[in-house]
Design goal:
single chain, 4 helices, six-stranded mixed sheet, about 450 residues
Length: about 450
């Protein structure tokens, strides 16, 4: 009995030892496994919050102009200064202005002389043209008279030749013919033919002379080429006189340039000692037009923001419930949003934050955003689940990879297609080591 008891005790000791070794081995094995945290899916709404920082800008700019080419004597304002109607902006050098006016008046005087010369030359050209027309008309009349005289003479010569030939025929009929009579008849016939040729030549010559005379008269009546130089010079003179009058008005104001309305100076484009250039000398934000808040909305957030949406604008002056008045795509790919401020609110350069909240419909299968993974940029979404199976040391937990379709998401949660994950399944939200499919894990 004692021997059997010793054997039984030894066997029990062996079993206990093996159990302890198993526990120790399992503990060592488990300690090396990735430790993961899990969560169950839940039903919730996905809230999207768009926040964008920006600044207050002018609603409208007003430019103050002056004539170019004038030397600046003094500048009275800087960027950010508030000005009222009549406030002095800058002063122009009056002595320099006097010299500029003198040069402009000299230009005007030269232009007046040029205009007078062009008027006289145009009158002389017209006189020459009329003289040419008169001479061409006289030549045409003379050519007509000569043609008529030549034709009349040729016709008389032909009639005389024909008359002599007829008389010879009458005499020949009563007197017997002889060799002398034949010769005389031939001569008379030649005279008739020669007279006919003379008449034809007269007609041809008359036609040529009259045609040339008509062409010369047509050329003389041709209008001269279009020339607008005189009219252009007159317009230039008129414009120059108006410009001189503007210079004189500035001179009468002692060179002072003032604002014509209230505003805030945003640009000063003149420099002391330098001459003014064509363009705005000073630009002011018009106080009569309400200020506006501008910000950039990221492209991926554009689907939650539209023109006309209600937003909350928070500035140092407080919170205001406003609307997005204008929304356009920026060159960078973002979207520029503009919100008009209430009249009298805001100051130029004031910072602020635009907020827009939008809550989606209720989704049955929502997981923490940390549990969602993606295969590269634009690839498929997938999640890891903590599954359970039989292993070497008994029941063990392992990683199950599953592709899912994302319906909506924000910075905290992702809504999956309904039924993608069962209510009792545990979704892995974190791990102290890198994990992948089928890997044995330890769930904490």
């Amino acid at each position: 009995m004692k021997r059997k008891e010793k054997i039984a005790a030894g066997f029990l000791f062996f079993l206990a030892f093996m159990w302890i070794c198993t526990l120790v081995s399992k503990s060592i094995y488990a300690s090396k496994l990735p430790r993961v945290t899990t969560a169950l899916v839940e039903k919730r709404r996905i809230e999207h919050v768009v926040e964008a920082d920006g600044i207050v800008k002018q609603g409208s700019d007003v430019a103050v102009h002056t004539l170019p080419g004038l030397r600046v004597l003094k500048i009275c304002v800087r960027i950010g200064d508030e000005v009222e109607e009549g406030s002095e902006l800058f002063w122009l050098d009056k002595e320099d202005l006097k010299e500029v006016i003198a040069k402009k008046e000299l230009e005007a005087a030269k232009l007046e002389y040029q205009i007078e010369d062009m008027k006289e030359n145009r009158a002389l050209d017209e006189m020459e043209r009329q003289k040419g027309i008169r001479r061409a008309e006289e030549d045409r009349e003379t050519a007509g008279d000569k043609a008529e005289t030549a034709l009349q003479r040729a016709d008389e010569a032909l009639q005389q030749a024909e008359k002599e030939l007829d008389r010879f025929h009458q005499e020949e009929a009563t007197v017997s013919g002889n060799q002398v009579g034949i010769s005389e008849r031939e001569a008379l016939e030649k005279n008739v033919q020669s007279a006919e040729y003379g008449k034809e030549d007269a007609l041809t010559g008359n036609a040529d002379s009259l045609r040339n005379a008509d062409r010369n008269l047509e050329d003389a009546n041709t209008p001269g080429r279009a020339d607008s130089a005189l009219e252009i010079a007159r317009m230039e003179l008129e414009n120059l006189r108006k410009e001189i009058e503007k210079y004189r008005e500035i001179y009468k104001a002692d060179g002072k340039v003032a604002s014509d309305r209230s505003g805030t100076v945003t640009k000063v484009n003149v420099t002391v000692g330098e001459r003014t250039v064509d363009g705005a000398a000073v630009v002011c934000a018009d106080k009569e037009v309400p200020y506006q808040f501008e910000t950039l909305i990221a492209r991926e957030q554009k689907k939650y923001v539209n023109q006309g949406d209600a937003v909350t604008l928070e500035t140092p002056e407080g919170k205001n419930e406003l609307v997005i008045n204008y929304l356009e795509e920026d060159a960078s790919g973002s979207y520029r949003a503009v919100v008009y401020l209430p009249e009298g609110k805001g100051t130029l350069g004031m910072s602020g934050t635009l907020k827009k909240q939008e809550v989606s419909e209720s989704y049955d299968c929502c997981i923490p955003i940390d549990a969602l993974h993606q295969e590269g940029m634009g690839g498929r979404y997938y999640i890891y689940l903590a599954g359970e199976r039989e292993g070497i040391l008994g029941r063990e937990r392992y990683v199950e990879m599953r592709y899912v379709k994302v319906m909506d998401r924000n910075d905290s949660y992702a809504a999956l297609e309904s039924g993608a994950v069962a209510k009792e399944e545990e979704v892995i939200t974190g791990s102290d080591k890198e994990i992948n499919g089928n890997m044995v894990i330890r769930v904490e």
